[in-house]
Amino acid sequence: MYELYAQKVYGVEVLTIMKRLREKVPRKWKWIAYSLIGLFILSIIGYLTILLGGRFVVDEKHFIFSESTVLQNEEGEEIIKLYDENRTYAPIESIPDHVKDAFVAIEDHRFYDHSGVDLQAILRAVYVDVVTWSKAEGASTITQQLVKNTSLTSDKSWLRKTKEAMGAIYLEQEKSKEEILEYYLNEIYFGHGIYGVEEAAQHFYSKPVSELDISEGAMLAALPKAPNNYSPLIDPEAALDRRNVVLSRMYELNMIDAETSIRARGKTLGLNQSEQEDQPFINSYIDIVLNEVEEDYHLSRNEIYTGGYEITIGLDLKAQEMAYKELQKDEYFQGSQGNIQSSVVIVNQSNGLIRAAIGGREYQRGDLNRVQVKRQPGSTLKPLVVYGPALEEGVYEPYSLVEDKQVDYDGYSPSNADGTYEGEMTLYDALLKSKNTPAVNILNELGVAHGKEYLNEVGIDLQEDGLAIALGGLEEGLTPLQLAGLYRTFYNQGEYIEPYSIVEVKGRDGNVLDVDRPEPEQLFSPQTSWYLTRMLEAVVNEGTGQDGSYPKALAGKTGSTQHPQVQGAYRDAWFIGYNPEYTISTWIGYDQANEDNYLTTGSSAPTRLSKAILSSLDETKDFSLSFERPEGVEELEDPVRLPTLTNFSADLSFGILDGLFIELTWDRASDERIEYHIYKNSGEEPTYVGKTTGKGRYKVQTLGFMNNPTFYVIPVNPLTGQEGEPSNTDSAY
């Protein structure tokens, strides 16, 4: 029975040996032989048990380390790192031999000889543990340290040490020495929040690990035993001593020769830390990037902080910093309380990239990002739902006349902010002066649905159906970022691109991640967009956007909303402007508007703020002096401004060819497009005599001595047919 069991368990060979032993070996030696065989079998079983147990300790996933995600600009310059553990993975091929030797020398000089556990070191450690009656460390190999750091806790129990040994033996069976060393050198902690040799090299020496010399490599190898005690930034003397211990150990193990050891020990620590500037001004932008990565690339926040991605972003660091600094100036923030907030966003004209975004005056990561908070846009909405659609439909031209008077629309009776009404005026001037009643009149003619249709086409759905949207009267509103994206279209032939911050995302494997971005949409035609650019340029030069100073090309629109509880005060103040390079959207207001929180200054404040930011940027960007008209669109004529005519006179004259005639003269305007209509009054009703264009002189051949007529002239706008004020009257007799 026993023989059958032995054959089944141990095989024929073991059974044969046992039979021979029974036959030839004396009885007292038989038990010794049986014991040795049993010990051998138990050893095999134990070894197999260790390997099997090691599989449960070590998991392949444990060696996928958390890596820093790098945000860089389009020139490849690092902006910031995002991480749970500040680590940049370095392949073993990029780590010089002398750096690897330094760590092996000081941490585990028998690394290449043992199979995961160093029995000699264990026996020494056990002896110390017994003598001192403690659980002293000191016997762990590099492989064991790796297993402990990646797969186990740091408690000093016998069970943990057993698991550590099991995991190390198993790992040595599964991975090569080079692979284990690579994992180890990328996993270890160097203090100051630094993990792995690559990040340590960058932190202490501002160079990649591949460029470290022997002394520098030894300095890094000195740290893992006690990063805080041996840190050259905390205790340079202790760090120097520990580095020299590493160098001495390398010499003892024949890793370096005597001269190299002496030369390296004679060096100073030679730290070369790059300056780490505090950059609070980038916080808003980083939050926008993180949200975009989550929404468009479908990466969780945890994955971003641990996945080792390389994210190229559109940030213009100068623009971001200048906008932030300008927002720290109190002169722009006038109100009832001191907690006035603001947001600024700058978008690139050519591609819609967000170049700068400030979500609050003292924004901290995770705060309310006001760049993406919806507010009532006020008059900044007029070009988008009134004037743009009116021009696009062909119902109106820039110099078409519209009524400027107060009208009741079924209980809705808007008024002009300045309380004055001109009777009629051109679209051009209605936008220039930000008149309310013409805007509502036009939208009423177009239809509210028609006015909203264009924004709907680019993905912005306004829920309101009343005429109040002509004046920005929205329940929910629009964000500064949305308005920047919409205004950007005016100088880009009407093409709308949803603003974005990310140029490209690369995984740790170097592959670029795919993203589905919305296709560009056409907001308005190139012709309408160019007309709006010229009209909005006039708003800045001679209309409501004149406040502040900016000497180069700029078009834009102001906007402000009345405070619901305080008469004459403001809730929101806006300026949205653009030049050929950038679009800027600026909002000022309180997070919560109530009877205690109100602005005392309207749109002039964000207008001045925006121009100050652009002026600062112009010093380095050298922005364009003028807008360039796109091919295939007609230029918008300058408006005709009718003069007040002075020094009109009628004189009797004689010419050889003309004979006796009456010569009428006046001081003409410089605009040669203006028509001058001449009238005479010799009875009850004035009589039209004739007209001339661009001149200040007219001849009347019919004298009319008997009636003694008086004459006068009226300037006329040829674009609209509007008449100006009559000149003074005069008679030739």
Automatic annotation (TrEMBL):
Known catalytic reactions: Preferential cleavage: (Ac)2-L-Lys-D-Ala-|-D-Ala. Also transpeptidation of peptidyl-alanyl moieties that are N-acyl substituents of D-alanine; [GlcNAc-(1->4)-Mur2Ac(oyl-L-Ala-gamma-D-Glu-L-Lys-D-Ala-D-Ala)](n)-di-trans,octa-cis-undecaprenyl diphosphate + beta-D-GlcNAc-(1->4)-Mur2Ac(oyl-L-Ala-gamma-D-Glu-L-Lys-D-Ala-D-Ala)-di-trans,octa-cis-undecaprenyl diphosphate = [GlcNAc-(1->4)-Mur2Ac(oyl-L-Ala-gamma-D-Glu-L-Lys-D-Ala-D-Ala)](n+1)-di-trans,octa-cis-undecaprenyl diphosphate + di-trans,octa-cis-undecaprenyl diphosphate + H(+)
One GO molecular-function entry: penicillin binding
User: Domain Glycosyl transferase family spans what residues?
Assistant: 78-250
Transmembrane residue ranges: 31-58
Q: Does the keyword Lipid metabolism apply?
A: no
Among Pfam families, the record links this protein to: Transgly (PF00912), Transpeptidase (PF00905)
Penicillin-binding protein transpeptidase domain: from which residue to which, for each copy? 343-614
* Alphabetical GO biological process terms: cell wall organization; peptidoglycan biosynthetic process; proteolysis; regulation of cell shape
List the record's Gene Ontology CC terms alphabetically.
outer membrane-bounded periplasmic space
Record keywords, A-Z: Carboxypeptidase, Cell membrane, Cell shape, Cell wall biogenesis/degradation, Glycosyltransferase, Hydrolase, Membrane, Multifunctional enzyme, Peptidoglycan synthesis, Protease, Transferase, Transmembrane, Transmembrane helix
Record's family?
In the N-terminal section; belongs to the glycosyltransferase 51 family.
Q: What is the recorded name of this protein? A: Penicillin-binding protein
Give the species this sequence originates from. Answer: Halalkalibacillus sediminis
